[in-house]
Amino acid sequence: MEGADRRLAGHAADARDSKDTAPCFRHDGALCFLSNRQPNEVKADEDADKRMQVWCLPAEGGEPAMLTDEPLGVEGFRCARGADRMVLFAPVLPDVPHEKQRETAAERKKKGPSARRYGRQPVRHWTTGCTRTRTSPSPTSSPATPADATAST
Hints:
This protein is mainly beta. It has one helix spanning 101-111; strands at residues 20-25, 31-35, 53-57, 65-66, 76-79, 86-89.
């Protein structure tokens, strides 16, 4: 019967608690989406449920498969209309190798921010507590006379 409704995927136990969002059809009819569900093939770490990854549900139906495993997750993506390409937006830590991104982010989260935080405006060191004297050029016997820069010669 053409046009009848059919279930595309079963209800996996781990998918019930997951957040699925941002659906986008691929050129071959497969449905891609962002999800924080637990990965099928790789061992999940303790923060895997906090990171969104791109998943793909085949056009024929079945269980979705994880397409990306970005260390800090994926924030957005789009599939190309007529090609087998996808563009995604994923955060990265500058100057940290790809394989160390997840570990470095977890370390930074545990230790807290590394920037200084001031509760009030910092005191200027040159207005208080400065005991050094500054030397200035001594005046000459004939002070310089100001000249008119606009006067023609």
